[in-house]
Amino acid sequence: MGPLVVVVVWRTLLVAMHVEEDVSIKGCLSQLSQISKQGTKGYRLTEQHKLARVGKTPTYVSVIGSVPEVVREIQHWGSGVRVITEDDCVYEANYVIVSVSIGVLQSDLVAFNPPLPRWKLEAIQKCDVIVYTKIFLKFPYQFWPSGPGKEFFIYAHDRRGYYTFWQQMENTYPGSNILSVTLTNGESKRVEAQSNEDTLKEAMEVLRDMFGPNIPDAIDILVPRWWNNRFQRGSYSNHPIISNLQLVRDVKAPVGRIFFTGEHTSDRFNGYVHGAYLAGIDSSKELLEEMRKSQTLFLKPLLALTESNIPRQLYLTGKLRVADAKL
């Protein structure tokens, strides 16, 4: 039986795993963990191998490709997939897992050839994308009230959402002298399109309107740009309160050998980190089930991984106020 290749497209960055016959995927987890810990900037991994032993079974895993590589096209057919990157590298695999954001799926960054079916495209386009921007301003000293009950400030303006929700960070980070302001959707996109200097000027005008003309100028500003980031194209998905569950199922549903995952595929926790985590577990189980049906690989080591290393039950407590989330 030949080797199996599974390609994971994560935020359009390529991680390809070449799994030799009769091996366990456990052997490569530490390498993938190192990729995650060190980040993708400046980190390249090509044809590195790892030997591991799981029980009595020698394990040989090869992690192929370069990280990061930007995926531009995914070709698919009945028996496999082909992933093509921006620098014209080509990877062929048995399956591909696509975990890019819903905003990227709605953009033209990644092309599918042949195109995704109509029902899939309609589901992707119907899913709302929220742009949520928290701007941080650092000052030489604190000039705003702090203490219990004085963490948030609300600014009223003729324009809806114009630098409305402010939060001082002293309760969480004493001595930081940092204020944050939250913008969403239209205001987020408007601010992302202008310079940091213009944004700082607008924010300072609002603060002087609230606290008087003698407050100091900010010495630094951080403006995230989730909408203009081509690897993100928004902050998170938003399913309406009254939503057609079929829409979520269609967003998540595989197309041939292309599997989809991410927070936008979670019907219970979309928009949250734990939603993405749980969706990844669900998608991996679905892929393993498909592998079992296709009988393309000896699956006992892989199935052992899902039984032992992935939590069967997560307890999500605290501010989330979710008693539990059973898989």
TrEMBL record:
This is Amine oxidase domain-containing protein. Pfam families: Amino_oxidase. It comes from Sphenostylis stenocarpa. Residues 70-287 form the Amine oxidase domain. Pathway: Amine and polyamine degradation; spermine degradation. The keyword Oxidoreductase applies. The keyword Amino-acid biosynthesis does not apply. Keywords: FAD, Flavoprotein, Oxidoreductase, Signal. InterPro entries: Amino_oxidase, FAD/NAD-bd_sf, Flavin_monoamine_oxidase. One of its GO terms (biological process) is polyamine catabolic process. GO terms for molecular function: flavin adenine dinucleotide binding; polyamine oxidase activity. Residues 1-16 form the signal peptide. It comes from the Eukaryota.
